[in-house]
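Per reviewer request, we include the raw input and output of the structure prediction for the construct analysed in the revised manuscript.
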Amino acid sequence: MLAPLSVWPFALGADFPAFAAEMLSPDLTGVQALLTSPGVVAAVWAHLIAFDLFIGRWIHLDARDRGLHPLVMGPILVVTILLSPIGLTLYLVVRVLRSPAQLTSSTRQ
């Protein structure tokens, strides 16, 4: 997760002042203009990859603690890495459907 984030400041480089100013008072036109710069696009991409990895790691650890089968979790994690809002939503639905009584005795303390 640190590798994508380490790219972020270098990718922004000279675009950082304009990026910071736009993020303090964002509007669609300004954000669209920023996304014409390859450095800003690389920084945004690194940010999204780091977010996807963070969410995927949380899902993996939470599912393991809850005793959810890896064959159920595998596809959800793939979707999370590709489309994190959809993968997170799928996982939260599975998590809600999995009642506390179904948790394995090893996860109860």
